[in-house]
TrEMBL record:
The lineage of its organism: Bacteria, Bacillati, Actinomycetota, Candidatus Aquicultoria, Candidatus Aquicultorales. This is Uncharacterized protein. GO terms for molecular function: hydrolase activity, acting on carbon-nitrogen (but not peptide) bonds; metal ion binding. GO terms for cellular component: membrane. Keywords: Hydrolase, Metal-binding. SUPFAM superfamilies: Glycoside hydrolase/deacetylase (SSF88713), LysM domain (SSF54106). It comes from the Bacteria. Residues 141-154 have a biased composition (Basic and acidic residues). Residues 86-131 form the LysM domain. GO terms for biological process: carbohydrate metabolic process. Residues 173-352 form the NodB homology domain. Residues 138-167 are annotated as: Disordered.
Length: 359
């Protein structure tokens, strides 16, 4: 009987290996690639023809390039110049507050525009920061406010420096009256009137808080052509204030006075109480200021001084280039000022502003 071979017992057949024709495969792939590219280009061209020629030109993105490190520091740099921003290179001794003060802006605005989350320790010399400006950047002398040229201490003969000024040159018979304002304002109108009647200009050092409380007087002082200097915001002892605190006091006051009068205080600055040291003067310099001290202290701030004593103290110290310290809140000064101005002139002195001493 013949043995019947079942599928299980059949001898397995060898699979035939498919022999690839690599030349044919290569040609096929090349053809497929060609057809794909042609179809894509044809679709783009067709869409371009159907859509018509657009009048809107594509523009390169003007966003700043932000370089992010592996830490939380984020440093911003700009690759384009935009009309409402300028680029600032960080220098030795800079802080966020000092940079903000230099450009009349705020620390938060600088950090926001640069996507910056760090503190002053994160600033590096040579770093580029984008600084926001309220108007397109242009030379200060051409900037305008409400259609009129901004009243500023333009081309001041006093240059920004950490070297303090306590008197002017001795080669001309000139003296400068200065008035500090930080407390009461009651006698100020009488003082302003005495200056007007004598056709004399003086230099006023105002605190930001005083200006907030006496906007009309601050405007009157500026409108009469009297230079205004920065006397800090809160009349703080700057020798006991941090660098950031000093910069903030100066920046805040500059902003208030600019907004109220249209006048910049820079570069004129006077420390409250005359309290200063090399650190204070250096921080002020970095903020765009130079300290103006005095040659003669009238002591009109002392309640024990009479008006006659104030006058005699000033007259006895008169000298070429003298800078005289008086106060807007002094009733003695308000009382004696008309007579004092008259006697100074009678002695042959020209009464000028602090900047005019150096012209």
């Amino acid at each position: 009987m013949d043995e019947i071979k079942t599928p299980e017992t059949r001898k397995p057949q060898r699979r035939q290996r498919t022999k690839w024709n690599y030349k044919r495969v290569g040609v096929a792939l090349a053809a497929a690639l060609f057809l794909t590219v042609t179809a894509a280009y044809g679709g783009y061209s067709l869409a371009h023809r159907l859509g018509g020629h657009s009048d809107v030109k594509e523009k390169a993105a003007k966003r700043p390039v932000v370089v992010t490190s592996s830490t939380s520091k984020v440093f911003g740099t700009t690759t384009t110049t935009e009309p409402n921003y300028l680029t600032y290179t960080v220098k030795s001794g800079d802080t966020f507050y000092s940079i903000a003060a230099k450009h009349n802006t705020t620390v938060q605005k600088i950090k926001d525009i640069n996507n910056f989350s760090g503190d002053d320790n994160s600033l590096q010399i040579g770093m580029l920061l984008k600084i926001p400006t309220k108007v397109p950047v242009e030379p200060e002398a051409t900037q305008k406010k409400d259609g009129q040229q901004s009243k500023e201490n333009k081309a001041s003969p006093i240059k920004v420096s950490a070297q303090e000024i306590s008197r002017g040159p001795r080669d001309a018979k000139k003296v400068a009256l200065t008035f500090d304002a930080g407390s009461t304002s009651e006698p100020t109108r009488q003082i302003i009137k005495a200056l007007e009647d004598a056709n004399v200009k003086a230099t006023f050092f105002l605190t930001g808080k005083w200006v907030e409380e006496n906007e009309d007087l601050a405007k009157k002082i500026a409108d009469d052509g009297n230079p205004i200097g920065n006397h800090t915001y809160s009349h703080a002892d700057l020798t006991k204030t941090s660098n950031n605190g000093i910069a903030y006091e100066l920046s805040k006051t500059e902003g208030i006075i600019q907004k109220t009068t249209g006048v910049s205080t820079k570069p004129l600055f006077r420390t409250p109480y005359g309290a200063r040291d090399s650190r204070v003067l250096r921080v002020a310099m970095n903020a765009g200021y130079r300290s103006i001290y005095w040659t003669i202290d009238s002591l009109d701030w002392k309640p024990t001084m009479t008006a006659e004593q104030v006058k005699n103290r000033v007259l006895s110290g008169l000298d070429n280039g003298a800078i005289i310290l008086m106060h807007c809140g002094s009733s003695q000064t308000a009382t004696i000022l008309p007579e004092l101005l008259k006697q100074i002139k009678e002695r042959g002195y020209e009464i000028v502003t602090v900047p005019q001493l150096f012209e």
